[in-house]
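Example 3.2
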Amino acid sequence: MDTKTTGPDNLRNAVTTQREMLTTLISRAMRKLSRQCVDLMSDRNGLEQRLVDALKDGELSNCKHLYVMDADMVQIVANVTRKGLNQEDFGRDRSSRPYMQDIVGTTNFRLSQAYISKNSKRPSLTAVRVIRDRNDRLIGFLGADYDLRELPATRDTYREPQDWQQIKGDPSIRGNLFGQQRMNSIVDEHMEDVLAVLGELISFHGVFHTKIHFSSSRATIWMVDAPYNYRLLSASDLTNPDICLAYPHRDYTDIAIIPQDAIANIFDMFKQLRFADENIYLRSGSINICNGMIALNFSCDGSHYIRWDEFLKNGMEFWFGRVV
């Protein structure tokens, strides 16, 4: 079986883009605030009031904590929050924190990598801005902690790429691959009827996603009317066409990427992949007509995610080489 892996790491690229946009938004506001702190570095009450006022500003209103450190990275104010002052971290030495490492002499602003906060146990990040006096001497640092769920919105939701992706599974399963052999399941024995029932549910009863577990003779389905819940269909359900009566008629959704007349061809490929070889065979396959993706899991515990049209175009030789 082909083991080539394709497709850029789009998720990491999306994270990088998100961080760049956050840096632009946060650094601008913190640069402005840091300049306002210069003349207040020896006035704790004045600093804290300036930070309280800053939290009311739209540019920093998403911040969880604001605080100021001296040139030795020791906190010289309370944590300023939207609920008031938290005195717990006053006098805290933050010099050992990862976001403070190598900041002097390299940059005036840093946005940390996300981390799990010690108290709230939620994904968070910290932004730090160097405070310089009018002679450009470093006199302190401005810090801002953010809860990721409260960050300002900067872009649309990440969209999963549609490039073919292959993921290797458990090495112990691959190592014993030729010591196992496909055993006929109930679904295998009634394959034509099972695929016909599922095809009917997709085409005329509002199912937009289904995963068929061939080896364990079950399937899960997701409906356009209730996309947050899945239904589990047993072997007896899948082999009984009456099951279609349990789901109301729905026209084929107009947001589907996969054409309705391609469903049967996709299921036929599932069938061929299931029976093509006694050692390497399809254990489960899924189809999502709205994102156009096919997912496959084989007996070697390898998983593949591939666009529906590429899946049909490649044929059996793509998966097994020459089919005799």
